[in-house]
Amino acid sequence: MGKNTIFSGKLTRMKLRATVIKDIWPEILFFTLFSMIVALIDRLSSTKLAVNNQLLTVLGVILGLVISFRTTTAYERYNEGRKLWSSVCVLCRNVAQIVWTQVDAERPNREKPELAVPVLHGTIEKKSMLQAVAVSVKHMLRNEPGIYYEDLYPLIAFLPRYAYASDGTDANDLLPLWQASHNKNVAPLKRVATRTSSLMTSLEDVDERTWSISYRPRGYHEFYPEKVLPVVYTDHPLRPSRQPPTTGFFDYFPILRPAKRILRYFKPKKVETDEDETFIESRSRDWDYLVRQRMEPVESNVPLQLMMYINSYSAFLQKSNLLSAPAGATLTNTINALQDAISGLDRIKATPLPFAYQAHLRMTVWLYLFFLPFQILGNMGYLTIVATAFSAFLLLGFLEIGQEIENPFNYDLNDLDLDGFCLALQRELHEITAHPNFEPSKFCFNSWNQPFAPSDRRTAEEIVRDDNEYHDKETGLDQIQKTLIRSWRQVDRDTRH
């Protein structure tokens, strides 16, 4: 029997934050107090507020259907996002396996031996591809533009930055992947940026560079996977891999958020600058940030740029005859499918439910809850207060859940664990590249392999070495077939109930 995830373990603060209670409790409180006022006026005064409840039945059925449709639509987006992420992981693994197993790392050149590529060079080429795609998709889906992140920049720092190989010193020659991140008008960071050990002003000042570590030292027991990434040069402070908005007082008391905006006008805005050049950033949901995103669309499509390099590498392998025709076609189809999956994820992110539908549905729920006490007051009396609170909890809760999971790529506790998916893919890609391409003769014919078990439990080493019935030129193949049939019969018999 499956474990109940709600009641298992302690009721932690994280579990409470994963619910929608903190978002809907002001509305529940409002309608509860309103129903209390209605009940007290009806019972303690001569004014009777009860009305016919026929409208309640009609509106209740319609509202239930609409909220059900809203929740179902939001979950479909959530589920489709999870399926597409699974496709991205599977396709990345497939591309890695094709490149790692089908492409020969050693490339001899009989006509021009000086142009031959040694095994080390070929291995480095194969190992350098595909690691950053999923990470770049994660940041794109979270509306985090650019490439200067602790988990992304170390994986793509080796890519070319300029359009020309020689004298590419003019900033206008920067490729799209780098140009957007160097643009001064790019939107501000979302939390305090991590400081690199050396903030360099120019990419060309190689002699003045020092190594900048892409991770910050933390406690021994703390989880910080960026420490396994390369240590690279950087001319730009790296943003954290995760930039969730901090949960503060106003998140638990959303009814006071208008006061926060009013107080902001009386608080002087300043940017602290000290020896470490710490950057103070605004949160992504601030209005000025949203306006800046609309007015200055400077970010480039980082996953598209990375896929261009992968496609270029695939074309290079096929032009150089390093891939067979079937393997080349499979690789091309896999890369195209990977781009389709990324486009599907972007479609979910960029196509929210129309605002008019969301606003009309919420206003309908409010009107329904507003008139609910008047319609049930005559039959329920003071229980109207409890019934209204319970109805508000159900209707507003489902409405809020649908709105929360509509975009499953953010940092909410109910959203998809994109960071976990990327780290799992990182482990799998390293596991693939850790697999040596042995020839079968190196491992099949030893004392650990019993190829004809269970009918013949001799080892492969014994079968090959000793003179037996399988070595007969005329009947050897028949004996092998008989052994395989006996094995099938025994397995079929012993594995059935």
TrEMBL record:
Entry-linked InterPro entries: YneE/VCCN1/2-like (IPR044669)
Compartment list: Cell membrane
One Pfam family in the UniProt entry: Bestrophin_2
Keyword tags: Cell membrane, Ion transport, Membrane, Transmembrane, Transmembrane helix, Transport
Membrane-topology annotation of the record: Multi-pass membrane protein
Principal localisation: membrane
Transmembrane segments: 20-41, 53-73
MF terms (GO), sorted A to Z: chloride channel activity
GO cellular component terms, A-Z: plasma membrane
Highest taxon, organism lineage: Eukaryota
Record's protein name: Bestrophin, RFP-TM, chloride channel-domain-containing protein
Protein's organism: Thelephora terrestris
Organism ancestry: Eukaryota, Fungi, Dikarya, Basidiomycota, Agaricomycotina
